[in-house]
Amino acid sequence: DTIETASGDGKSLYGGTVPLRTTLSGSTYQLKDATRGNTYTGDAANQNDLCLLTVCLSRAPSTVFTDGDNHWGTGTAADRATVAVDAQYGTDVTWDYYKNVHGRNGIADDGKGSYNRVHYGTRYNNAFWDDSCFCMTYGDGDGTQLGPLVSLDVAGHEMSHGVTSKTAALTYSGESGGLNEATSDIFGTLVEFHAANKSDPGDYLIGEKVVRSGFGREALRYMDKPSKDGASADCWTAGLGDLDVHYSSGVANHFAFLLAEGSGTRTVNGVGYNSPTCDGSSVTGIGRGKLGAIWYRALTVYMTSSTDYAGARKATLSAARDLYGADSAETDAVAAAWSAVDVG
Ligand code: ASN
Ligand code: ZN
Ligand code: CA
């Protein structure tokens, strides 16, 4: 059979109708993209991995989705291919964000794609990146608190764990763990903005498409004021590293919002924010593009596995000096945004 790349489209759950590059094998299309390192999406058939630490006794499948006419999904969760469209699209826009914005050629910067498994387990309320399979796994959610976890910010968040693992390798506990989580929230958010998808526009909320009414609030996390989730820290204090990494991330998420947008109230893409500083200062933002450039350089050049919040301040200042100069407004803004979250 001849194998060739084709252009199709899919009706996604969260992003409307989206373009897809697929693989025509004989007369069947596969949800596999040779233009992005052969990244593909498969069905985990509601099975679970059986893993002890890093050793897996059995793994849920990843049977590649196929289609007869290259028009994928129906846009409703009842159709198994629909969330596969979201997952593949999320991988596409994450690939494109890293390639077009940072010149990074795939998660490992080696041109190789990863793969996705959707419909993992039963009512599974999570999604995760796994270094050992170089793959993404998405649950369908329990339908009450969470729906399928295939939104753009979650996809960008999870695959950014792969980027962190291949670069700074921030240890996933203590302050470095909070920085690891914040790196994923920052790039997940920048991926969402980069996609410029009308049905899932960029915002500084994490998981706003995924939460259902039973969850009790409109997002998993908030970058303008992380404590809005009831658990995350807005400001650095001694003992921050004792928090769960999804809560100690709050300080760096808050820094990122202040650096990109500035303190106080504003509306971005129709969503209102109010970001207070911890020290009463006021911060002027330098924009999302410069936030991404500074954080990416800090992550890939200066941070190491043991970087803590004081080290993140140093790393981002070094990155800003490299990119914009020691006396630049951008370098001053990095210092001001860290001071505003009590990282002095
Ligand atoms: N979804 C979670 C996360 O990426 C999975 C985990 O606990 N690592 O943070
Ligand atoms: Zn994470
Ligand atoms: Ca979001």
UniProtKB/TrEMBL annotation:
Its EC number is 3.4.24.-. GO terms for biological process: proteolysis. The keyword Zinc applies. Transmembrane segments: none annotated. GO terms for cellular component: extracellular region. Residues 8-165 form the Peptidase M4 domain. The active site is at E158, H246 (proton donor). It is found in: Secreted. Keywords: Hydrolase, Metal-binding, Metalloprotease, Protease, Secreted, Signal, Zinc. Residues 168-343 form the Peptidase M4 C-terminal domain. GO terms for molecular function: metal ion binding; metalloendopeptidase activity. It comes from the Bacteria. Its cofactor is Zn(2+). Extracellular zinc metalloprotease. Belongs to the peptidase M4 family. This is Neutral metalloproteinase. The chain holds residues 206 to 549 of 549 of the full protein.
